[in-house]
Amino acid sequence: MTESAPAPVVRRDDTRHRFEIEVDRQVAGFISYRQHGGVLELVHTEVQPEFEGRGLAGQLARFALDQARAAGQRVNPSCAYVAAYIARHPQDRDLVDD
Questions:
Q1: 9-90 CATH choice from 3.60.60.20, 3.40.109.10, 3.40.50.300, 3.40.630.30
Q2: Residue 79 gets which letter from DSSP?
Q3: Tens digits of per-residue pLDDT, 15-47?
Q4: Complete DSSP assignment for 36-59
């Protein structure tokens, strides 16, 4: 029987103003953010090169958008990756602050 790798862990780190994804107890990527009242500006997405190609940026974006929705926040996707993610997931377009 093959032992599977543990699932990535995604969390919000308010002290560093970012959403992080951890793989094997190592921060593999993050989305940095800024708060502007009820608007969550998603500024920058980054995944470490050794973790690229695993869909981690998408997991981060999904988590950040789900967190914003649960908190009743609007989203400003100033990060090109998050903007493209929202364009591919029309169910999230209602979150965008125009």
A1: 3.40.630.30
A2: S
A3: 999 999 999 999 999 999 999 989 999 999 999
A4: ETTEEEEEEEEE-GGGTTSSHHHH
Rounded Cα–Cα distance for residues 93 and 88 (Å): 9
* DSSP H/E element including 27: strand 26-36
Name residue 47's beta-bridge partners.
Answer: 29
**34, 77 Cβ separation under 8 angstroms:** no
In terms of C-beta density within 10 A (0-12 exposed, 13-18 middle, 19 or more buried), how is residue 54 classed? Answer: middle
